Amino acid sequence: MAAEPPPTSDDREPLSLSPRTPPEVRVRRIHRRDLNRTWDFLKLCFRDVNRETVEYQRPRLKKRFLEVYEEEGVEQLLFETKIAKKDVIVGYAECAFEIVGSDNWMNQRYFSSRDMRPLYVEELAVHPELQGQGIGAFLLEQIEHLARVRGCTHLVLEVAENNDNALKFYRTRNFYKLDAAIFLAKKISSEAELLPPRRLKRAPPREVVEALEAASPSPARRKKPNGGA
Ligand SMILES: CC(C)(COP(=O)(O)OP(=O)(O)OC[C@H]1O[C@@H](n2cnc3c(N)ncnc32)[C@H](O)[C@@H]1OP(=O)(O)O)[C@@H](O)C(=O)NCCC(=O)NCCS
After folding, report:
1. pLDDT recorded at residue 207
2. Beta-carbon neighbour count of residue 28 at 10 Å?
3. Ligand 1 pocket: which of 81, 126, 138 to mutate (most atoms <8 Å of CB)?
4. φ and ψ at 15, to 5 degrees?
5. In the prediction, which pLDDT does 227 show?
6. pLDDT at site 10
7. Residues in the ligand 1 pocket, defined by CB under 6 Å
8. Residue 195 within any structural domain of the chain
9. What is the residue range of 164's domain?
10. 73 Cβ neighbours under 8 A, 6+ residues apart
11. For position 166, which CATH number holds?
12. Is residue 17 part of a domain?
């Protein structure tokens, strides 16, 4: 479980912002009372990404998100700024020192056999309207700092190949590909399940036709019971 927040090292009141003063972003550990609005924030951040990606959708289930708060060894960090005297979430970072959750596909032995002690980055998200201003860099720097002070050797994360913005963000920050499942697809031509009628090589022999007709006379030739045509 995330501990209650210790007093921050910097307790200054934020600067009163003129429209020209870029706001200050602060990081703190999440509290229980932040969970619902953080969940809403994550849904907003991933809305457009989810539309374009086939891999599992982010954020995970809300139930799972709430469980993570109770887990040991997971850091959930909120990045906030003050706008009109209100704390506004502008970023969220979640990382774990161990592979957590029963739905995780990662192979711990891959890392231990290579002397890697990864910090698993589970989530990085910046408010969609504030992307491209260095908040993502702050999130990543904070996580890298945490990894260093806790003796981790690598940051490891999963990103969809077609999440172009995020991929560019990671690539320019020296992330390299470990190995990955790539989602491949092939278009199957759409056809009727059953083949069309096919003409035989010969007409059926006359005896066969007569025998079939005798067995079940066609309605037109069947006599009416009262002897009429
Ligand atoms: C990926 C993400 C965390 C980056 O945050 P950010 O605040 O935009 O990052 P920064 O401003 O520090 O850096 C911007 C860089 O990231 C890239 N970038 C990513 N998203 C961007 C956006 N929407 N607008 C502009 N640049 C973006 C740019 O290439 C830019 O490169 P530069 O540093 O060479 O200029 C953010 O785009 C995000 O939350 N995306 C949606 C959620 C997501 O996909 N998370 C990652 C899942 S693995």
Report:
1. 93
2. 14
3. 126
4. -60, 145
5. 43
6. 42
7. 45-46, 49, 124-126, 131-137, 157, 159, 163, 165-166, 168-169, 172
8. no
9. 26-171
10. 96, 97, 98, 100
11. 3.40.630.30
12. no
The two structure tokens encoding residue 46: 């991933």
Structure tokens at 126: 């910046």
Query: Can you give the pLDDT at residue 108?
Result: 86
Minimum-distance ligand 1 atom for the alpha carbon of 173: 33
Q: Is residue 203 part of a domain?
A: no
Residue that is written with structure tokens 């600067």 in the block: 15
Which two tokens mark 80? 């906030």
Kindly give, in sequence order, each residue whose CB lies less than 8 Å from that of residue 23, ignoring residues fewer than 6 positions away. Answer: 14, 17, 81, 82, 83
Residue type, 111: F
Q: What is the pLDDT of residues 171-188, one digit of tens each?
A: 999 999 998 777 777 887
119 beta partners:
155
CA atoms of 65 and 156, how far apart (whole Å): 20
Specify which residues 103 forms β-bridges with.
Answer: none
* Residue 193 within a domain: no
Phi, psi of 100, deg, nearest 5: -120, 155
Sign, Cα dihedral of 96, 45, 38, 86: positive
What's the domain count of the chain? 1
* pLDDT recorded at residue 220: 54
C-alpha–C-alpha distance, residues 60 and 1, integer Å: 18
Low-confidence ranges of the chain (pLDDT < 50): 1-17, 227-229
Nearest atom of ligand 1 to the alpha carbon of 135:
7
How far apart are the CA of 113 and the centre of ligand 1, in A?
32
Decide if 25 contacts 14 (C-beta within 8 A): no
Where does residue 132 fall: left (phi above 0), alpha (psi -120 to 50 degrees), or beta otherwise?
left
